[in-house]
Amino acid sequence: MYDAALLAHPLNSRVRKREKMGGKGAMMVAMLCLWALSATTEAVVMEEEPGLMMNFYKDTCPQAEDIIREQVKLLYKRHKNTAFSWLRNIFHDCAVESCDASLLLDSTRRELGEKEHDRSFGLRNFRYIEEIKEALERECPGVVSCSDILVLSAREGIEAVGGPHIPLKTGRRDGRKSRTDMLESYLPDHNESISVVLEKFKSIGIDTPGLVALLGSHSVGRTHCVKLVHRLYPEVDPSLNPDHVPHMLHKCPDSIPDPKAVQYVRNDRGTPMVLDNNYYRNILDNKGLLLVDHQLAHDKRTRPIVKKMAKDQAYFFKEFTRAIQILSENNPLTGSKGEIRKQCNLANKIH
């Protein structure tokens, strides 16, 4: 047995305190080590999953962007309307929650594909995306995502019709399911008020000048009569330019047009195959085909920007470039998220 007086000695008391403090110190050191290890692990994960970047495929598929460019040029020579399809694809895919090529997925027994929804009316030429994918698979199997093909083909399509070159990041991965149930929440309808349209674009980071610029894509292509007959029948919309109405009535002679019929009106009769600022001059002259075109030219929030873009194509291209970049980077799947589809119209699990 220990002597009680010895145990109570002040020196032994200090020793015991030092032992306790030493134990606490060791515990703190261990905790710091664990924190450092955790931080290092997180840093490694972040390093492995860098997200979008310029020239993402420079090591894994150096020819990827060149292949997409050449394929788009080849297809454009054969089918001029493919350029308009590329441009519509990026909006209809990337504006709906994520830029992940969900638009390209076919319908299944359980789920309707986005491209079958009413808001996707008129979208076509999806088979040409598959042609580009096949060309890439021959060069670099299982490397380039369909979402990057969709985005880069849009860029090349924009250039094909005279638009600006737009530097775009890559590294997206493909989603595994359609987002049909979300379409109406994200994609504005042509009959909705300009306030609703502004709000929906704002929700994905695109401001008012960006919205006005993106709608400048109505400079090219054509609009099916289904989308504009409400401005012609039963009475002509008085806000339409009366000089433009006879042409519209000639192209859309039926108050209830057949959706499958080839009944269209060119968006811009002056330069129908060129992406330029003529669209803004047209809508200021009340020649816009859609209700949203008319509102864009006359709403106090957008009219000053429309007038500026009508006078300055460089300004239009600058804002258009910025808006496409924001759109293309909307909530992408990167790193280990999603997949690289073998076919763009099917998720891999269905193969």
Automatic annotation (TrEMBL):
Domain Plant heme peroxidase family profile: 51-348
CDD domains: secretory_peroxidase
Keyword Heme: yes
Enzyme class: oxidoreductase
Matching InterPro entries: Haem_peroxidase, Haem_peroxidase_sf, Peroxidase_pln, Secretory_peroxidase
Localization per record: Secreted
Keyword tags: Calcium, Disulfide bond, Heme, Hydrogen peroxide, Iron, Metal-binding, Oxidoreductase, Peroxidase, Secreted, Signal
Family affiliation: Belongs to the peroxidase family. Classical plant (class III) peroxidase subfamily.
Note describing how the cofactor binds: Binds 2 calcium ions per subunit. Binds 1 heme b (iron(II)-protoporphyrin IX) group per subunit.
Domain of life: Eukaryota
Functional note: Removal of H(2)O(2), oxidation of toxic reductants, biosynthesis and degradation of lignin, suberization, auxin catabolism, response to environmental stresses such as wounding, pathogen attack and oxidative stress.
Annotated protein name in UniProt: Peroxidase
Signal peptide start-end: 1-43
UniProt xrefs under PANTHER family: PEROXIDASE, PTHR31517
Pfam entry (one): peroxidase
EC number(s) given by UniProt: 1.11.1.7
Obligatory cofactor(s): Ca(2+); heme b
Organism: Brassica napus (Rape)
Recorded catalytic activity of this chain's protein: 2 a phenolic donor + H2O2 = 2 a phenolic radical donor + 2 H2O
